[in-house]
Amino acid sequence: MTAPTDQNLADLSVDVLVIGGGNAALCAAIEARRQGASVLVVEAASKVYRGGNTRHTRNLRCAHDAGNEILTGPYPEDEFWDDLMRVTGGETDPELARLTIAQSKELWDWMTGAGVRFQQPLGGTLNLGRTNAFFLGGGRAMLNALYDSAEKMGVAFRYDTAATALDIEDGFFKTARIQGPDGPQVVRARALVTAAGGFEANIEWLTEYWGERARNFLIRGTPNNRGTILRMLLDAGVEPVGDPTQCHAVAIDARSPQFDGGIVTRLDCIIFGVVINNRCERFYDEGEDFWPKRYAIWGRLVADQPDQIAWIVFDEKAVGRFMPSVYPAISAPSLAELAEKLGLDPSALAAEIGRFNAAVVDGDFNTEIHDDCRTEGISPPKSHWARRIDSAPFHAYPVRPGITFTYLGTRVNHEARVLMQGGRPSANIYAAGEIMAGNVLGRGYLAGIGMTIGAVFGRLAGKGAARHVGN
Amino acid sequence: MSGTELQQDAERQITICNACRYCEGICAVFPALQMQRSFVAGDIDYFANLCHDCGACYHDCQFSPPHEFAINLPKTLAGVRQESYGRYAWPSALAPVFEKNGLVIAVIAALSVTGFLAGMIAWNAPGALFSAHQSPQGFYALMSHDAMVGLFGPVFVFSIFAMLMGLRNFWRDANAVRMVAGPAPASLWQAVRDAGSLRYLDGGGAGCFNEDDKPEDKRRLYHHLTFYGFLLCFAATSVGTIYHYGFGRVAPYAWWDVPQLLGTLGGLMLAAGTGGLMAAKKRRLPDLVDEGTKGMAMAFLLMLHLTAVTGLGLHILGGTAAMGLLLALHLGVVFALFLTMPYGKFVHGLYRFAALVRFAMAKRTGLKTRVVA
Ligand SMILES: Cc1cc2nc3c(=O)[nH]c(=O)nc-3n(C[C@H](O)[C@H](O)[C@H](O)COP(=O)(O)OP(=O)(O)OC[C@H]3O[C@@H](n4cnc5c(N)ncnc54)[C@H](O)[C@@H]3O)c2cc1C
Can you list the domains of chain A with their CATH numbers? Predict the structure, then answer.
């Protein structure tokens, strides 16, 4: 038997092929279908796991001039712009950033029109109640609504079906090879929307930049975002954007599953204790700034520690003061017993905690402000919220780097069309979502902007693809 | 936490929900569990009875099976709920009735109908059961009003008492560690509104789920028909009783009279509602069904359905020779329903209501942790 060639594979023909099944893909599919194009969505995941990292999201950031029944007040475009500049340090394409922010204003109505429902900000996230719209039931509920709308409009879906090769000639997309439950097939489409996420689940690829350290990384979202489509596009001459070496990484519970642990594996207690590596050494200022401003640095910090593992150690005083997480803390009546349970050297742990305790300067403990509870004379210091770790029982959470997404992507223009090396737009290839988020978010992170970028560029891609088909 | 296997699994899941909170806007269960960081068995029973089984959180959850976190609160809490009915039953010796509930109820119903048949045959002239009885006596020709009151009254009183005792047990457990306090009347009224409108059988506004992943379920409507139909039937009987003792007006009443109108409308609603609920139950997505709870729910629905259908049958065929049989059937079913009230699905309404009251109180004034000496 010979391997099937493209000539003898069953052919599928459609106006717009959408690769991916998350927020960006669905926004594109719905929009293209609304313009009258026939649309096929191929999703690598099974139906239960459809929707990649979007399943794990909880909100979307959108500019608006007035509050409504859920958003607690206005969030003008300029303020959104300032927030974006602050987190990216200016690493953004200003034209695309302005476009994203301007079009984010339409998203509330667009999503609601597609059956998505919103709810009040969740407990513990009231600070986002004005700027971010929270999905009722979370990202999977939001996706279910989009899928339902798309199905009713006549968008076709294939689950368990990955795009495995793209035939692109000089920036012009011709066919895609897909691999599904019924074997390989070739799809002819007049326009292609790539919405297949980043490459964070591709550990091999991550080792290119992180070395063997990447093998100890946990991936917070889907195992399917392996960057296969991104790689194909770049290989076909699409211009890259974003720092390939960078990813958004937070410290998550080391006991979490390798993939798809989602939001519940996060730990919000670092400011209440100290963080030590497996030599029982502290390595960074745990109280440098408010937690929401610092949580995204800890993935990288832990990645730089031996064996990419660390422990947050705290005492009974801190219990109940932070958001609960999926696994219980490891607890013991004394530091020595705790070290035993953690597999650490008890005397080294006692020495490090002793050093820390001796350096604590008493103050008025208050997590609402940059308080005056700090250390003196140790390096690294703990600048705020430092309290002696002395009230038994003692507790610890093991942490590892948890990767949320990668920054490398395809460069696009204001129509969501990918740009080839040299700046020429592709005739019929579009990109939306994580695969191109680096255009807008070159660095850092702003809660809810992943969904904003996906929805805005998803819609643009869908409209653009349909328009191309119509011409 | 100590507790049954199901309670422990529920606690495991709830701990994850407490870390996620995406479902906060769906119903009362999530805001209720978010008020705590640790849980005891009584808390789990409280959450289980607060859950209306709308199914939304299962379809919305990024961690539902096959994910290794295996979150499936609708199913697990349904199992806990059923167990909890046994835990709170009074007298506790009757708790096992909840385990083989469908069978027990069926046997009691059959015995009860047979009893009424046998009684009516034994106490009346030969052949009386099978001949037509015209007004003014109607079915009292077969069984006197006094005999009915004498039989049903004590059973009804006992059932009410047993259920109140069950409620007391539930409340004590729910407040074992964390207590609610504060002005209950406002919370009671809130709970009446929440229960009366089935506010939480609505997926937070998106709708409920039953046979598939589409929020197009009609159980809320069927339940309204069932509940309000039942209330109308109850009102019909109450008005009849007032007529009887207050005004000396003895049944049967004309078709346009209040008890007849209430009873007919209530019976139709009850029949349609329970029919809808039974059909929905049969279609329910197997992933959401705790196998152990099926018999109980079906038995209860069937009993209500039979009550309605036989009642309507009497109404239509009351003047014919079929009346005797229908009457025995109807009275037998109603008697069994009353008798088994504290030991079947009927109690779900009581515990659900109590849970809603507790939730309203907790929201209003918070929870106080009991200091254990
Ligand atoms: C735990 C967590 C929480 C988050 N919370 C938020 C939040 O609250 N708000 C926010 O804005 N952002 C959040 N993010 C980021 C957010 O998830 C992403 O920005 C967003 O989901 C990206 O959408 P997307 O459609 O581009 O990609 P995804 O939703 O990841 O979808 C990519 C899809 O492509 C499919 N795919 C991949 N390769 C192929 C292939 N070869 N063939 C076919 N299909 C393929 C995948 O199966 C997947 O369905 C969170 C991320 C994580 C991990």
Answer: 11-245+407-470 (3.50.50.60), 248-402 (3.90.700.10)
